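[Help] Beginner question about ligand-bound structures

Sorry if this is basic. My supervisor gave me a protein sequence and a SMILES string for flavin-adenine dinucleotide and asked me to "get the holo structure". I don't really know what that means in practice or what format the answer should be in. Inputs are pasted below exactly as I got them.
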Amino acid sequence: MSLIIFNNSQFLISSKLQKVKKFYSINVRSHFDIIIAGGGMVGTTLACALGKNSRLANKKVLLLEGSSKKHWKLPENYSNRVVSINPGTHKLLNDIGAWKFIEKLRFTAVKRLEVWDAISDAHITFGDSEEDNVSYVVENDVILQSVSEEIKNVPNVNVMYDSKVKKYDLPILTENVVTVTMDNDDVFTCELLLACDGVQSLVRKSMKTDYLSWSYNQMGVVATLKLSDEIKNEIAWQRFLPTGPIALLPLTADQSSLVWSTTPEQAKLLLNLREEEFVDELNKAIWQKYDHHSVIQQASSLFDTLLRFLNCPSGGIRQIPPKICGIIKESRAAFPLGFGHSAQYIGQGVALIGDAAHRVHPLAGQGVNLGFGDVVCLNEILGEANISGANLNDMSYLKDYETKRQQHNVPTMLAVESLHRLYNTEFTPVVLLRSLGLQATHVIEPLKKAIISQAAV
Ligand SMILES: Cc1cc2nc3c(=O)[nH]c(=O)nc-3n(C[C@H](O)[C@H](O)[C@H](O)COP(=O)(O)OP(=O)(O)OC[C@H]3O[C@@H](n4cnc5c(N)ncnc54)[C@H](O)[C@@H]3O)c2cc1C
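Answer (accepted):
No worries, everyone starts somewhere. Holo just means with the ligand present. The predicted complex, written as structure tokens, is below.
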């Protein structure tokens, strides 16, 4: 038996209705303008942004999340899952009213990013001004909770937890409605389905779009670190080792967050070490001196002389990274790293957003920032479509979203991929090329600014 609710103005599926449904064992059937599949950081933020968009005020949005609602309280210890968010994402979270909650909880402003190569002397610094922040380090849970808090103030967005989708029926040719079937056989329909259901996106699979993907055969080992001394901890550090990059993101005066990309074998070993042994390995990875090839040494010192001759600034005094003395108990974990890109971001009545559309190596801290960039773009385009009297699933507007985002995402992903490949080798000519490139970029301000502005939106 099925219960049909087609009334948009009464779109809240009340707990009463759920109880009735359970009692009579019937399935709910309900229609929304927009359904968002997946309430991770990207999906929840998209729901909040659409709900707050005055150009979409007459539209009803349903957010479906498979996992349970967390009864969350800020824990004493920092989570090992943090992201470095760029100024564009900071602006988005501020615009939708979520940043004020993040401020009340916790975050760390990053003033500078120091990147250096283990097997050459090359290094680069981003962010020199005291006023501007290069990025912000925020726990994933803090972002999610803050946006969820703000969604409570948005009447046209309904959020359903414990709501796993098992099937999507996408429109074929003349049909205009997407049908979403839940695990419990409830059915929802919508004009536009927005897929924020992550790397393994069931929506993307249902679209049957071409998806280019590979595994890096690397794991990202994460942990919350204790520093030996209390410092003005406002620099993010990244060292490129032959096995993968190791990054320290500042949290407090005496804590930082670790993302250590390495081989699956070493990751397994690192997770199984005693905490003191893990800390020794970590300090070794940050400080260990590698033999520098004499050709690379000579070439980079000649290049340095040339840059000085050309009046390029030396880039200031080189800082030294913090020393680690311990880790927060049980904060170690590891995640597989991979690349993925969907050839199409859109189909009839559907669009892909965030990790559902693209996945990058975390070495440049771009993953969720690209997803938040998709949110800004789609929110604006859907607002334009609605105000112009077009349907939300109008293909010309959806195409505009796809084009704009691919124009940004593809070059950014290529840059991240090139960095990964460039630093994943000890082959002397490549090491030489990358150290000279890094040296030049470090002192050529316009080039540095171009990199920062591409990464900041
Ligand atoms: C080690 C590591 C470090 C990283 N560091 C950074 C960083 O510093 N900066 C950065 O920008 N990015 C970083 N990233 C990337 C970032 O974590 C991801 O890009 C981001 O989490 C993706 O968010 P999302 O909302 O698109 O997907 P997800 O977080 O995967 O959310 C998908 C949601 O959809 C739900 N879902 C899935 N299927 C269904 C279904 N059938 N029905 C209902 N719900 C469903 C899931 O429950 C989940 O909540 C890092 C990644 C790793 C692994």
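A couple of things worth pointing out: The chain has one domain: 2-455. Residues 1-15 have pLDDT under 50 and may be disordered. Feel free to follow up in the thread.
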